[in-house]
Design goal:
Strand order of the largest sheet: 16-15-17-18-23-22-21
Largest sheet: 7 strands, mixed
Number of domains: 5
CATH class of the largest domain: Alpha Beta
Helix content: 10-25%
CATH architecture of the largest domain: 3-Layer(aba) Sandwich
Number of strands: 32
Distance between the termini: 62 Å
Shape: elongated
Strand content: 25-35%
Number of helices: 12
Radius of gyration: 37 Å
Length: about 675
């Protein structure tokens, strides 16, 4: 509360005034004539009653009156209000509540004197909005942590909405506000309500402070209240920590200080980065930032390596900032980065500008934290494949029997592979082929093709718009041996498959009926090519090709019979996660919601994985709020309870009671019985 509120309430201290007044009030004693006193010599004396409260009823009324007066004076300064909807002529409303449950919402609100997180305020606001929902209103709930999820489809069942809101908890995910807003608008699209609104309860910190304001589909209004949870704050996070022998490479990211100054160095102060084994600090160094992120290499002393062998190490930042949970991260041993093997058709992969093949340039430009390994030939030994999480093979003339055996075994254990099919794939020599990765006979056709069928696309998303005319000079045609074992993800306009998927054990093999060669098509020059590579990298990470993924990335658990996933907290607690059913209802997966170390027990084998912070989530600067998104026609803060009128009426009643008591006081004295002689 503010100073004025406390000052108004301080009037209540005046309750001591009636007490003092009643104690100081001393009435002279009543004198009674006694005949025998005439025989006694006069002796002056003073008779005084013991100091005590008189007229207790009158005293109580005066105390209550002063308390009521203090409450009446403090009422204008009391912020007892809630978030409420504004209706248009009393019409019903279709509302999609977007709650941001990302890591940035752990920061404190900007309200003075309030000690709660932004998520707590957003969750409270959602409950306040629910209090204003009436009959006929429809409500949907969407969570904005990446990837956005539908917590509840649009419904008029108020109890269902309350139950969902009670189960919404804070996570450490990244933020995808654009996807969440679009998802909310989609949930309202087919409703018959004329008034449709998407309310965003978020700090708008999604890593894009210079991005354009959020937009919604036509016919849906966007409402972004809660300005008190939006604002920049200082935060630093340990993004990752990789160990190679005695060296630990730690990446630290900090939120920029000035708006729009991404290259300006943050101010970490006197903070240090340390490598710890439990509570013991093995090595540390002062944190120096020359930009939004910094890489620090620490060397563990040889004595500590022996003493703490087999003990889990953590990289931690000293000091404090807006978010505490991202100041520490487990150290991942060698292999923490995704290893990507690339076998390119060197003659066909040349680009006019020179340099590496397009697939290598694209992966380097995406900066996905993957380590590229260009390979001259397809690996033939299992140990060569074991260190890879993703293998991309561009237009090779089939695989030898030994290669097929090793590749199939590697995919079955969780590997991810992409095979592109071009002219060389269609001219495979006798004994070479692609089965069981692709059980089909491959033939190359030089017939030009227009582009893909956008309705069949489940990979490229928004980038598919540029693939409707990729000007392909040919394509691979497939005679499938077992069509039921393959899933078509993208089709050509004539219905032929462009991208196929085959699940083998815990891994997956993709086949693309078009090579990356720019002489065959311009696929490698379009945004859809980047979307495809991003899909491959995300799939490889989720299937176990790397020990570290970002929070919210699903871990598929297909192929295992007995599975247990537990989060190992810093307090040595083991919290077992419940498994999630994939959208296709055919596979299980675990989704880490919090940062830290996880232990997976898979058919008796124990492995560890790390859920890491998304680097973009460290930037707490909000993106611009859309124009008109806080208009009073949509809603705002209204007084929840206004008791000033009731206090004033009570005060008048106390005044009337005092007047009645004062009027009756003389009569009570006159009728008081006299003491017996």
């Amino acid at each position: 509360m503010s100073f004025l509120t406390w000052a108004a309430l301080a009037v209540g201290l005046l309750v001591a005034a009636p007490l003092v007044a009643h104690l100081l009030r001393r009435r002279p004693p009543d004198e009674e004539a006694f005949a025998a006193t005439k025989l006694v010599p006069p002796n002056p004396a003073v008779a005084q009653r013991r100091t005590a409260l008189e007229d207790r009823a009158l005293f109580s009324i005066r105390v209550l009156a002063i308390i009521a007066l203090a409450l009446l004076g403090a009422t204008p300064f009391m912020k007892c209000s809630r978030l409420s909807l504004a209706r248009q002529s009393g019409a019903s409303v279709a509302l999609a509540i977007v709650i941001d449950d990302s890591l940035s919402m752990r920061a404190a609100t900007l309200e003075s004197g309030e000690d709660r997180s932004r998520f707590e305020r957003a969750h409270q606001a959602a409950a306040e909005l629910l209090g204003g929902i009436g009959p006929g209103d429809a409500v949907a709930v969407v969570l904005a942590g990446a990837p956005p999820r539908v917590a509840l489809a649009a419904t008029t069942n108020l109890d269902s909405v309350k139950g969902v809101l009670d189960r919404v908890v804070q996570s450490d995910r990244g933020t995808d506000l654009e996807g969440a807003v679009q998802l909310g608008a989609e949930l309202l699209r087919n409703l018959e309500h004329a008034d449709k609104r998407v309310v965003v309860l978020s700090d708008l910190a999604d890593g894009g402070p210079e991005a354009a304001p959020l937009e919604v589909a036509q016919g849906v209004k966007l409402w972004v209240p809660l300005a008190e949870i939006r604002g920049a704050a200082d935060d630093c996070a340990v993004v990752r920590a990789d160990r190679v022998a005695e060296r630990v490479a730690v990446r630290v990211a900090c939120s920029p200080r000035a708006k729009g100054a991404e290259d300006e160095a943050p101010a970490p102060g006197d903070r240090r980065i340390e490598v710890r084994a439990g509570a013991e600090v093995l090595v540390g160094s002062r944190l120096r930032m020359s930009g939004p992120s910094a890489d620090v290499v620490l060397t563990i002393p040889e004595s500590a390596q022996t003493q703490h062998a087999g003990i889990r190490l953590y990289a931690a930042l000293t000091g404090s900032d807006a978010i505490a949970v991202d100041d520490i991260a487990p150290v991942v041993s060698l292999g923490g980065q995704l290893q990507v093997g690339i076998v390119s058709n060197a003659p066909g992969s040349r680009v006019a500008t020179g340099g590496p093949p397009p697939v290598e340039q694209a992966l380097a430009a995406l900066d996905l934290g993957a380590q590229l390994q260009p390979l001259a030939t397809v690996p033939e030994r299992g140990e060569e494949l074991e260190r890879l999480g993703l293998l991309i093979v561009d237009d090779v003339p089939g695989f030898t029997p030994s290669q097929r055996r090793e590749l199939a075994g590697w995919v079955e254990k969780g590997g991810v592979m992409l095979i592109t099919l071009g002219q060389r794939a269609g001219a495979a020599p006798l004994g070479s082929g692609f089965s069981p990765l692709l059980p089909a006979i491959v033939r190359w056709s030089k017939t030009p093709q227009e582009g893909i069928d956008g309705d069949s696309d489940s990979v490229f998303g928004e980038a598919a718009a540029g693939l409707d005319a990729i000007a392909a000079r040919g394509r691979a045609q497939l005679d499938l041996e077992h069509p039921a074992e393959l899933r078509t993800l993208v089709k050509w306009k004539d219905g032929a498959p462009l991208l196929l998927e085959r699940r083998i054990g815990r891994g997956v093999a993709y086949s693309l009926t078009l090579p990356f060669s720019t002489a065959t098509s311009d696929l490698a020059l379009r945004p859809g090519f980047l979307a495809l590579l991003l899909r491959l990298v995300d799939t490889a990470r989720s299937l176990g090709g790397v020990a570290r993924t970002t929070v919210g990335t699903p871990w598929p658990l297909d192929g295992f019979q007995q599975v247990e996933v537990a989060h190992l907290t810093r307090q040595d607690q083991r919290v077992v996660l419940s498994l999630d059913q994939a959208p296709d209802q055919t596979s299980r997966r675990a989704i880490p919601e919090l940062l830290g170390l996880y232990e997976l027990t898979l058919d008796g084998t124990t492995v560890h994985r790390v859920a890491a912070v998304a680097e973009s989530e460290v930037d707490l600067r909000p993106r611009p709020a859309p124009d008109g998104s806080a208009h009073r026609e949509l809603g705002g803060m209204t007084a929840a309870v206004d008791v000033s009128a009731y206090v004033a009426i009570g005060l008048l009643g106390l005044l009337l009671a005092e007047l009645i008591l004062r009027a009756l006081a003389p009569r009570r004295r006159r009728t008081a019985p006299k003491p017996a002689a």
